[in-house]
Protein 1
Amino acid sequence: GAGVSQSPRYKVAKRGQDVALRCDPISGHVSLFWYQQALGQGPEFLTYFQNEAQLDKSGLPSDRFFAERPEGSVSTLKIQRTQQEDSAVYLCASSLPGADTQYFGPGTRLTVL
Amino acid sequence: KQEVTQIPAALSVPEGENLVLNCSFTDSAIYNLQWFRQDPGKGLTSLLLIQSSQREQTSGRLNASLDKSSGRSTLYIAASQPGDSATYLCAVLWVNTGKLIFGQGTTLQVKP
């Protein structure tokens, strides 16, 4: 079956622009996670949804970052007024409720010039 | 603070060699520990998951061990092949957080 998909795969933005990154989880996966991976580093947790409820947003680095999952399936991570330090790969993962394993998408590589 | 550390950051070995990647973590109250593989430009692929009650897991040429009391895990790769070249990430799920904390990764190059 289809895995986790993310779009776009690559995004170049000028400093100050707003961007929106999309994640399509595996069908039936209740839990959805967003991670940020800087070059040469491991992924860092941003936020977590269970269905449409955002249960943990402790990893969002600033109020410029906003995530939503209005219908409990597709999720969008929005970054307002992008800055150079936002350049990273943004990974999305999904899992079944209570499951140990998270399934990761290919990521969106964001470059802010 | 709950942290995961991986050493070394990079490793280069000749084909056929057996090798060990190291992962250490603070706070032994873990739920599980997972090893992932990441190829350039790709997402993460789960290799092995060890529950807190287990001491090791094996899959083919890979063996992962867990020592909770010392806060350590190792990933053993037998008879390495050029196709094993990738970044290997260790991630811990702690009981009281529900979110994965990753190490920085070890980038492995296996030379033919």
Protein 2
Amino acid sequence: GAVVSQHPSRVICKSGTSVKIECRSLDFQATTMFWYRQFPKQSLMLMATSNEGSKATYEQGVEKDKFLINHASLTLSTLTVTSAHPEDSSFYICSAKQGAWEQYFGPGTRLTVT
Amino acid sequence: GQQLNQSPQSMFIQEGEDVSMNCTSSSIFNTWLWYKQDPGEGPVLLIALYKAGELTSNGRLTAQFGITRKDSFLNISASIPSDVGIYFCAGPSFGNEKLTFGTGTRLTIIP
């Protein structure tokens, strides 16, 4: 149980274009999902909290107009990186909350902006 | 903000050895979670701890919730090659569903 998928696993896009990443909870419903970013050899950095049916809550320093989050159903949250730049290249990971505190993570999406 | 410091930062061990790592916080946590991350993958939840003093096992892994509520320990017995990876502790900020992640302990097995 508690399986989370992400799509795509890897994406290469050109600077200035937008990229959408999907996060799905496959065997449970998640009213709350989270989006993280991870740089090489570093820990996970929370970008935003995604709540079903309401606006996402962004962490300080994360541009909400650049990283658009939509949590349209209890099993799907999407992150759209708009007008991507090379510095947006990173490993993006989502998680879905089940129970009081446990978060179950997707396999991650490697974004490369050329 | 809250910080979780993990020690050691990295470990180089031989197959079959036991492993111990810990996680300390500057503030109290009510829950401790231990995750393992393989290269290029998302973290996988290993053990969840909910009560001070609690000792919980998952196969060869054992984790303990420190009685001060400011630390937690993870032990791996008889390590095998698939134990290689980065281990993260994590805990929710008090009254908040967001998780704070530790700095990570990278485990490498020397042939």
Protein 3
Amino acid sequence: DTGVSQDPRHKITKRGQNVTFRCDPISEHNRLYWYRQTLGQGPEFLTYFQNEAQLEKSRLLSDRFSAERPKGSFSTLEIQRTEQGDSAMYLCAGGSKGEQFFGPGTRLTVL
Amino acid sequence: KQEVTQIPAALSVPEGENLVLNCSFTDSAIYNLQWFRQDPGKGLTSLLLIQSSQREQTSGRLNASLDKSSGRSTLYIAASQPGDSATYLCAAHSGGGADGLTFGKGTHLIIQP
């Protein structure tokens, strides 16, 4: 158990709806990362926070995606106007000294 | 742009064999390299982290090596067991440790009882 939790574990939504995922790292993790993983692929980097500051965003993160980490603790990832191509596993990872520890992921299915 | 390749994509071996999983990366300016295990439908479990200044790391039956000059890492699994069956992912961490990890597609490993 890495201590990183994600909620919900599964989400089914209809195309066009908004969804929000939550990630809770352990308190020692001043860095927090979001990744997306599709079937048969390795995870792809989406965005990264150091404390509450969002320091980097991948080109994969379209305008429909937004992430926050308001108090440098938990983080949320929101997808607006979901599309079928957004169906994937969304993974969160915490870290402090280079090593990253992943949560169980949220599996999103867009119908 | 960093690219990570893992060979083979899939591997099936009898229980008890020693095996080697390969990972190559295109940009040798890495901060560290991390090996993960992923069980079906689950998140990633960190197995070994090798800092850029290190040549290898060991944990139990696992040994990972790093050769930055050739852009290669290997994960050696000794005396394989059915419980080792999983997908093994290699990830390179670039950019002074601040950028996200760049992952390979993984090696799907099956250990036959």
Protein 4
Amino acid sequence: AQSVTQPDIHITVSEGASLELRCNYSYGATPYLFWYVQSPGQGLQLLLKYFSGDTLVQGIKGFEAEFKRSQSSFNLRKPSVHWSDAAEYFCAVGALYQGGSQGNLIFGKGTKLSVKP
Amino acid sequence: DSGVTQTPKHLITATGQRVTLRCSPRSGDLSVYWYQQSLDQGLQFLIQYYNGEERAKGNILERFSAQQFPDLHSELNLSSLELGDSALYFCASSASQGGTEAFFGQGTRLTVV
């Protein structure tokens, strides 16, 4: 069955420090991968997506992620964290439908990011 | 602003009652997805509609149902509510049946008392 694992429930980093949030997936084909961010009381905002091609993808707000098929990973990175990045981050994979298309999202449990001043 | 509108934002109701959550997708999007977010289960996919037809079903209880209307807005009906149904319910829309990014609404916070 398709699944997504985010091993870190909560991460605290200092403002200006680099960030890496881990995501591992279990999938039977080439996945569509996504990172979403949720601020308190808000909906989910798409940060970036990977469908195919270049394995390093750039997103909004200075985030990037790298798809590594050999490690079944899609880790999210940011070189310098800002206080406004404090939020919860969700990794997701597109569920595989019959016929090979991908549809609804399967989410990880999320990683809550706290930023120290 | 994602362009997906959900109403109401908050809903408080008693056990045993029935409620309807409404979602208007982004202009031009044909797919609507419903998700439930709770502390213990995380974000769970409930159901997807594409152009008025049910496309996929996830962990949706029999007490819950949904539909998509000709103008593409969707409603999620929750009946015989239990305390455990308290959660944040998200609607998302995408342009096609799948394989593209989905845009999420702000959610409806349901509290069952």
